[in-house]
Amino acid sequence: MFFMDRRDAGRQLAARLAHLKAAEVVVLGLPRGGVPVAVEVAVALGAPLDVCLVRKLGVPFQSGLGMGVIGEGGVRVINDDVVCAAHITSDELAEVEVREREVLESRARRYRGGREPIGLEGRTVLVVDDGVATGTTARAACRIARARGAARIVLAVPVAPHDWIARLGEEADELICLRAPRNFFAVGQFCTIDFSQVDDDEIVACLEEAAARSVSTRRTESRHAGLEDREVDMRAGAVVLRGQLTVPAGASGVVVFAHGSGSSRHSPRNRFVAAGLNRAGLGTVLFDLLTEEEELDRANVFDTGLLARRLADVTGWLLGQPETEGLSVGYFGASTGAAAALWAAAEPGARIAAVVSRGGRPDLARPRLPAVTAPTLLIVGGHDQLVLDLNRKAQARLICENRLAVVPGATHLFEEPGALEKVTDLARDWFTDHIAPVPHGAV
Predict the structure, then answer these.
(1) CA 118 to mean position of chain CA atoms
(2) Where would I find the beta strands (DSSP E) of 129-188?
(3) Is the peptide bond before 32 cis (omega within 30 degrees of 0)?
(4) How far apart are the first and last CA of the chain?
(5) In the structure, what pLDDT confidence band is assigned to residue 35 with cuts at 50, 70 and 90?
(6) What is the predicted pLDDT for the residue at 113?
């Protein structure tokens, strides 16, 4: 079996993976060569695509010889035999690792273009490369996926040496390869036309293609599933604010998002959380708290009273929409937006069912905190010490039902593997526990 190029290899590999189509699969392509293969697999399975970033640790005086690999989330796989044979000291190994981790983090930003890594927790993860040679990279990729909470890992490649299962069988729950000959010399020997080097631009193009297709697919599926998902214009005082309203069929409530300074309704972190709430049967509204002109004045960004009034106005608009009539309302605030959410929830007659703060600054609403009646969840990263201290002090002023949840190892933006998934789970459980439809006829 031969392949014209990596895309052709991906299409042929996808045919062997049809049994995964019904599963909730995330496809991870290994840069660089694995991504063009993975994009074809993702298309065939209708699954989201992301990269699994791995960097080889080359021997200092012979960079082509690998002494291990590193990946996102602090994963590292060291080949002790090579380290020993090459007489590599711990300082030399550490120096190479620091350098390669900087490259890894830079490429993560370049490839994803600001998008959050796709959550893997509880899902089947399909790790795809253009082939296996030594297996070190594939091993690290599987361990990265496992560390990020994957429930099941499938490793799939077009070609590999005949003994590849013996090498990697313990790393994945299922291994699939189209050809594993004894006379294996290199992955490229099985491509008949094009096996040229894949560059960063091609990887970015593949991921953007997959992201655009995913948005289109979600919109199509939303229509078929009865999910209301539309751009909206909402009047707040003298201005009109842009937003995105998403309401699943049979929604039990709706959550209004208040983003932090420097962010917008397009915040990838808030959109990630919102998608998790939608899957749990909750509607969401993501909107811009300020107009583009207002954002130019930084004083507006930190004007908690102004932002709270905007939030209240949007809530009033929301309750007048046919798809949200009779639904309880919750607030999700991030950073300074959390202060606005608590301030608005403290207004007399606000009737907010629940509030969740992610990495928030509730201290900015300090005078209003004792007046908040909505059950309030404060989520803070364990390594975000300053904000954690501010939240503890703010919590002491809350009289309502409340809880402080600390996500271990997370920093302010919850960028660490699995951190945002944990935030989503906490927010989902808090809202579903405290939000219920408003009784018919209630004011």
Answers:
(1) 4
(2) 152-159, 174-179
(3) yes
(4) 69
(5) very high
(6) 80
Q: Is the per-residue pLDDT at 98 higher than 80?
A: yes
Instruction: Identify the pLDDT of residue 185.
Output: 53
Q: Residues with Cβ < 8 Å from 390, sequence gap 6 or more?
A: 361, 362, 363
Starting at the earlier edge strand, list the strands of the sheet with 49-51.
49-51, 25-29, 124-128, 152-159, 174-179
Whole-structure pTM value: 0.53
Q: What pLDDT, on the 0 to 100 scale, is given for residue 13?
A: 92
Q: How confident is the model at residue 220 (pLDDT cuts 50, 70, 90)?
A: very low
**3-state secondary structure string across 68-103:** EEEEHHHCEEECHHHHHHCCCCHHHHHHHHHHHHHH
Q: Mean per-residue pLDDT for 166-194?
A: 73
Q: Are strands 62-71 and 54-59 parallel, antiparallel or unpaired?
A: antiparallel
Let me know: does 6 contact 30? Beta carbons within 8 Å: no
d(CA 78, CA 136): 9
DSSP code string of 195-238: -PPPPHHHHHHHHHHHHHHHHHHHHHHHHHTT-EEEEEEEEETT
Report which DSSP code applies to 146: H
Q: How many CB atoms lie within 10 A of CB 24?
A: 11
CA atoms within 13 A on the CB side of 71: 25
